[in-house]
Amino acid sequence: MPRLRWLMIGLCMAANAINYIDRANLAVAAPSMSKELGLDATDMGLILSGFFWTYAIMQLPFGYVADRVGARLSLVVAVLWWSACTALTAAGRGFLSLLGLRMLLGIGEAGAYPSFAKVAASWFPRGERSFASSIFDSGSRVGSALAIPLVSWVIATLGWRESFIVTGVLGFVWAVFWMWLYREPEDHPQVSPEELARLRAAQERPKTVDAADAQEQVPWLSLFRYRTVWGMMAGFFCLNFVIYFFITWFPTYLVKARGFSLAELGTLGSLPALASIPAGWLGGFASDALYRRGWSLTAARKTCLVGGMLMSSVITLSIVAPNVYVALLCFAVAYGSLAFTAASIWALPGDVAPTPAHVASIGGIQNFASNVAGIVTTTFTGVMLTVTQGSFVIPLIVAGGFCLLGAFIYLFVVGEIAPLPVRDARAPALRPEAAR
């Protein structure tokens, strides 16, 4: 199979790293911005959550569009959009302008993950898809880890406004390489007909249908008839409720609750994100290895999904940690376990899509639900901090509870991990086999 698949997924990882640097920039800059602009915790929580309103909603049309125009075009448009919005955040002057710019940022970043899932499903067979997903998904942790030291350094050297300009430029550079290098396997001049045939045979899918025929057989709205799709949405909501605590409020937690300086934030504060990078790769490797060793795809994926969610619940133990190092260990284990789980989550759209023309659509649907969690966790944490005068106890207890709930959903609500039946998609009521 074509070796180029690793370059393609590597480009997705780089785009995702930039995605999360731009997304996490505000969280790192929040203490400096709040002081200069007179924003309290509730204001900042609403600004942080504004991103997720548009980001969540736009997952649905972006997934649909990526299936129509292809990942090459959908992803470059998304990156250019969000990079411009990131740079413009430097011009923010108060609550309303910052909220508006964050909402615009969410529109652009919504195109990332559905496009990534489309690339992984196009270039990788089932036995490698979870590891491929772990690679592009690890870009989120690379970006989160880089954001803290990079943005902290730029803020300390130049100022918080300049940090948004610096990080915004990264996406424009990436876009040049993407348009130069990326093609679908069928269109890439370096993929021979024999390599393409082997790749498609190894993907073990039913006979491919034309995209227009696929939409006739399985209209987009009919995807919501499947129980498995709803389970994927609910399970990913639980995981992202915790993930977005790390992305949005974790730097503030370290400063306010643990007394970190800006320098400590840029070093010790990046440890959980750094630990999550190899953990995500391990999750993808483990899921694929179990499948290649003869486990059913359902058993391979669910073992990693359920095990990772259960382990991530240790985040709650950080409340009783006797010192900052034990607390960081709890956070590192939790974040690593979430990354371990996410590799299989992002393999699911390619695993269960009824046709290849529905991969990005299902990826967008599950990511829509998961990012509603971003709205909830950012706003909920901000309100709790205001009500409890800065205590993180309640948010961390609730986070651990969502980890346990997510494990239950992936075990009992998500059905068999297999392509969803095409023929039953337009039936007036779900038959048992269509409820997967």
Automatic annotation (TrEMBL):
Q: Which UniProt keywords apply?
A: Membrane, Transmembrane, Transmembrane helix
Isomerase listed as a keyword: no
PANTHER family in the record: FI19708P1-RELATED, SOLUTE CARRIER FAMILY 17
Membrane-topology annotation of the record: Multi-pass membrane protein
A Pfam family cross-referenced in the UniProt record is: MFS_1
Q: Which residues cross the membrane?
A: 45-66, 73-91, 142-158, 164-182, 229-250, 270-291, 303-320, 326-348, 368-387, 393-413
**Species name:** Methylobacterium oryzae
Instruction: Classify the source by domain of life.
Output: Bacteria
Q: What is this protein called?
A: MFS transporter
Major localisation: membrane
Residues annotated as domain Major facilitator superfamily (MFS) profile: 8-418
Kindly list the places in or outside the cell where this protein is found, as annotated in its UniProt entry: Membrane
